[in-house]
Structures are given as structure tokens and as C-alpha cells.
Specification:
Order of helices and strands: HHEEHHEEHEHEHHEEEEEHHEEE
Structural class: alpha/beta
Number of domains: 1
CATH architecture: 4-Layer Sandwich
CATH topology: Metallo-beta-lactamase, Chain A
Bound molecules: zinc ion
Shape: globular
Helix content: 25-40%
């Protein structure tokens, strides 16, 4: 009986091609273009970690990894399905909240330096329910613009009005002293004026730290080379831990596979490589979850030893916290 109805329905359609044409001409229902808000959450013990995307930039591959044999770089890019001659560098910022502490590691590109493809952090924070005045600590890895420009809001005031600003003392000493400008590689020199500008509204709120405990549950670890004071941070609660690797690696598909290469943003490539190998060895040996500033969203996972370097293994995406 059912078969007969189907056959009859089929015959009716065959007999009425005009009906089919009419159906095909129906416009698809309107779909809002754009992506879902760029945030993702997971827990580390009592910490709630929120990864918030700030967009991306693109750089020509051949100058981005100077010194890399071009054919070998191309092979790694192919392995990671990076098409074309440019490398995409995303920005994803790590926030963590536990009790009355709500910290963020670095500050994003901000709205004053936004381009067409970045400066999305504040909008994505709003989507995630993270209110800038709620931030109690901004903890800096280093002073490159993409990590400190977001300290300022659109009017040049404090984007994080209630936060204590934690900075590596070595980084503060280097970029706070203009006498070091001529001793820095050409590409690093704009960081001096930019550092003064971005920290200006936070006078009296900046605390310099060295390696060791910064606040309960957060430890600073020296990882110099990318800049003189580049620092990574361990977040912990009991036995649970996470390491924010900042710019110890840029895109791990390249710098984890070949830890001895350096990239154009590195202040001192050979020192950066030593730090990179040290932090990779630590997180691979202890199987510690990591976040990075320039990994593909949501920028968290693990490093496993592989060949002459390491492979990045993204953490499982979970709909449940
Ligand atoms: Zn960076």
C-alpha cells in the first residue's frame, strides 16, 4: 500500500515538471553570514579557562621563518595544509577565573590597532559574558604590540580599569629604557615607544615579577629569546595544571616540528630556540595541557615528541564543562 502511494507520488512529479521547477526557484532561507562568537571554555581544577579569539593576520612565509630551507618549510606547510605563500597567525587570548581572581594572559590587539581581520577580542568577550572591569590581573608574557595594544580602550584609557598589571621585570627593564633601542634588532625598536604608550594609563598599577609564584595558583617561568624578558605562566589547582606558552612557539605546525628554527618576531633566535626546547620538553614529559597565543582556535592541547621535534595535538572539543 505504502509502495503504491510512493509510486503514484513519483508519477505525479514526473507528470508535472513545472512543479519541480517552481521548487528549485524558491530562494534558500536567509542565513546570517559570519561565524559563531569565538570563545571556548574548559576547566583546570577550580579554574574556569575561557579562550577568546581576537582574529588573525597573514604574513609572507618566506620572510616569516628566515633561515628555514625553503623546500623544508614548504613541506611542513603542506603537511599542515597551509595553502599559498602566506602563513596565518591567529590571536587567541587565555582568560582564567577562580573565586575572586579573574586573570588574562596578555591583552590582545585592542581596538586602537585593529585591522580588518583582528581586534575582535572585546566583542567576543561580550559574547562570552566576560566584562573588562571584572578582570583583576593582566599578566604579560612580553611587550610586542599584538600582546599589549589591547591595554587601551578606544579613548586611550584603561581597557581593564580595575586590573593589576603583571609584567616580567626583565621585559620592563629592557623596553622601559630607550638606551636599549639601538641595541635591539631593527624590527623590535617600535616596541619602545609603544610600551610607554600602552602602559601609561596604568601608572601605580604595574607589578614587576621574576620567575616564581605571581599570585596563588600562577607561577611565572622564564622563557627568553622571543624577547629579552619573554615569560610563560603555569596555572595550577592541586594536581591540575595548564601552561600558557605565549610566543615560545608561533604556529606549532612549524616551530614545534623544527624547534631550532626561529621566526621573524624573535629578538634572539638562538636563545628563543633554547627556551622553546626547554618548555616543550617540560610539557611533553609531564603531559601538561597548554594554551598558545598564535595556535589555531581554540588554541589549547598537548605536545607529543615526534621525529626531530614535537607534534601539537589539539585537546578534545567538549560541549560540557
Ligand atoms: Zn605574538
Amino acid at each position: 500500500m505504502a509502495d503504491r502511494r510512493l509510486i503514484l507520488a513519483g508519477c505525479a512529479l514526473l507528470a508535472a515538471p513545472a512543479l519541480l521547477q517552481q521548487a528549485a526557484a524558491q530562494p534558500a532561507p536567509a542565513m546570517p553570514l559570519g561565524q559563531a562568537p569565538g570563545f571556548y571554555r574548559f576547566r583546570v581544577g577550580g579554574w574556569t579557562v575561557t579562550m577568546i579569539n581576537d582574529g588573525f593576520n597573514r604574513f609572507p612565509a618566506n620572510t616569516f621563518v628566515p633561515g628555514a630551507p625553503p623546500a623544508e618549510l614548504r613541506a611542513l606547510m603542506d603537511e599542515a595544509f597551509m595553502a599559498g605563500d602566506a602563513i596565518t597567525v591567529p590571536f587567541t587570548i587565555t582568560f582564567a577565573q577562580r573565586g575572586n581572581t579573574f586573570l588574562v594572559f596578555d591583552a590582545g590587539n585592542g581596538v586602537t590597532a585593529a585591522t580588518a581581520t583582528n581586534g575582535r577580542m572585546i566583542a567576543n568577550m561580550a559574547a562570552a559574558g566576560v566584562d573588562p572591569p571584572a578582570i583583576t590581573h593582566v599578566m604579560h608574557s612580553h611587550f610586542h604590540g599584538d600582546h599589549i595594544n589591547g591595554l587601551l580602550d578606544a579613548t586611550g584609557g584603561r581597557a581593564f580599569p580595575n586590573a593589576e598589571i603583571i609584567v616580567p621585570g626583565t621585559e620592563w627593564a629592557w623596553f622601559g629604557d630607550t638606551a636599549n633601542e639601538t641595541r635591539s634588532p631593527e624590527r623590535q625598536r617600535p616596541a619602545f615607544a609603544n610600551t610607554a604608550r600602552r602602559f601609561a594609563p596604568y601608572q601605580g598599577r604595574v607589578r614587576q615579577v621574576g620567575a616564581g609564584e605571581v599570585i596563588p595558583g600562577v607561577t611565572a617561568i622564564d622563557a627568553p629569546g622571543h624577547t629579552p624578558g619573554h615569560t610563560v605562566y603555569r596555572l595550577s589547582d592541586g594536581a591540575e595544571q595548564l601552561v600558557f606558552l605565549a610566543d615560545a612557539l608561533n604556529r606549532p605546525e612549524i616551530t614545534a616540528r623544527r624547534p631550532d628554527w626561529y621566526f621573524v618576531g624573535d629578538f634572539d633566535g638562538s636563545v628563543a630556540a633554547v627556551s622553546r626546547r626547554r618548555v616543550l620538553d617540560m610539557v611533553a614529559t609531564d603531559r601538561i595541557r597548554v594554551t598558545g597565543y598564535h595556535y589555531l582556535f581554540p588554541a589549547n592541547g598537548y605536545f607529543a615528541r615526534s621525529g626531530q621535534g614535537y607534534a601539537f595535538v589539539p585537546a578534545e572539543w567538549s560541549s560540557a564543562l
